[in-house]
Sequence to fold (167 residues):
Amino acid sequence: MNKTTAVYPGSFDPLTIGHEDIVRRSLRIVDRLIVAVAETATQSKSGLFSIDERVDLIREVFADEPRVEATSFSGLLVDFAQGREARVIIRGLRAVSDFEYEFQMALMNRSLWPEVEVLFMAPATRHTFLSSSLVREVGRLGGDVTDFVSPGVKTRMDRAFGRTAGE
Ligand code: ADP
Fold:
């Protein structure tokens, strides 16, 4: 039987528990999931972690899940997906506000590569307000991000903001 490989692309700066939720839900549907950090940000965001750091954090969080691979890519998502023989693209939908951009991008990707299918996943309700940019902002301003990211991500965020654990 053919195994289904999917790509879950994003900026993941940093990976939040909302992203983790989408990854775990996707694994119920696909056999392998490539979490792919986009090197070229399509939406301008002030970054916190380097691309390599983001990939490392994703690897660390899913160290116990052999079906998840973390990597980065540059250029067109469909070219990357095609090269990896991944015919499914996973995206998370938090709210109606995500919809317009996501829908437009899904149709564009499919016109670039007609064989690809884009699958939208809804996170658990408690994660719908989470975004990496908001988590970065809270962290930058000294707020506690424990509820929004994995412990390893929190440690690295504390370090990035010049704080040590428990401070
Ligand atoms: P962000 O918007 O948080 O910076 P990314 O660009 O890293 O996110 O997003 C990658 C994908 O994950 C997108 O499809 C985005 O909609 C989705 N996503 C981000 N946060 C969540 C969340 N809390 N719940 C569900 N999906 C999410």
About this structure: The first strand starts at residue 5 and ends at 10. Residues 96-112 form the longest helix (17 residues).
